[in-house]
Amino acid sequence: MRRTILVTLCLGSAMALSACQKAADSEVDRAIQSVNAIDDNNLSDVMLTVADPNEAVAYFKRTSAQSPDRIDLQRGLAGSLVRAKQYTEASAAWSKVVGMPGSTTADKVEYADALVRAGKWEKAEQVLDTIAPTHETFKRYKLEAMIADGNKEWKKADSFYETAVGLTTKPASVLNNWGYSKLSRGDFREAERLFGEAIQYDPKLYTAKNNLILARGAQRNYQMPILDMTQTERAQLMHTLALTAIKHGDVSMGKSLLQDAIDTHPQHFEAAVHSLNALKGV
Fold first, then answer.
1. Is 93 domain-assigned?
2. Is the pLDDT of residue 8 over 70?
3. What is the rounded distance in angstroms from the CA atom of residue 92 to the CA atom of residue 5?
4. Residue 253 lies in a domain
């Protein structure tokens, strides 16, 4: 009898130990999975921000193929393709994301952005039209403004640009786009103001500086503005202003600005020399 009780107790203890071991193993497995998930998320963040764009594409192609149902990896692939400037593939990747369970309105905005970059403006407009007006983000309204611009819907474009500017602390790029829109419409004074504002937010934005020169030149104002610029940039901007002056028939002013550009440039300024020689008939 005692032996039977002892055997029963031993078996019970063994089963309990086995159950405890399984529970412990399960806890360890869950912990490892959690750590792996954290590592995956950290690596994904790195790939989408500081990693080489092509390496990021290769990473997300590999990981998303291993786990095709994970929308975070599909997003990573789509985003990395945009960073790598593979816009046609990026459009297809974002199209896949928006069709997956768990996709968001923000995914649709990214899809529209990829379509714009790929030159598929009509499709981008169709995607944006499916987004509720309550989704108010900088990127959404920046895209809306660009599409309205392309359609020459000026009032809508201005409204969207204004809204986009109010939704970001870094509006330099959208102010530059808005200024270029005004420049294309012939509103040179307003374009100049917007380019100047863009430069205030980002003093290194050369495209805004060059556009500012175009806006001033269009008003036949050939004075160089006071800007934070390198010597090379100053020479290049003088060259732009010179060509604008020549386009308006102010050839003497153009020649003078070309010579200033050549003298200002720290190296041989081939483009300016060529333009000046062409004017002189050399």
1. yes
2. no
3. 69
4. no
Q: What is the dihedral of CA 99, 102, 105, 107, to 10 degrees?
A: -60
DSSP 194-225: HHHHHHHH-TT-HHHHHHHHHHHHHTT--SPP
Q: Identify the CA nearest to 214 among candidates 251, 174, 187.
A: 187
Residue 227, Cβ density class (10 Å: 0-12 exposed, 13-18 middle, ≥19 buried): middle
Torsion angles phi and psi, residue 218, rounded to 5: -65, -25
Average pLDDT value over all residues in the chain: 87
Tell me whether residue 175 is in a domain: no
With respect to residue 180, please indicate whether it lies within any of the assigned structural domains.
no
Domain of residue 85, CATH code: 1.25.40.10
pTM, full prediction: 0.79
pLDDT digits (tens, 9 = 90+) for 134-186: 999 999 999 999 999 999 999 999 999 999 999 999 999 999 999 999 999 99
Angle of CA points 114, 185, 161, to nearest 5°: 45
Range of the structural domain that residue 102 is part of: 48-118
- Secondary structure of residue 132 in the 3-state scheme: coil
pLDDT in tens, 39-55: 556 777 777 776 788 89
Largest CA distance in the chain: 122
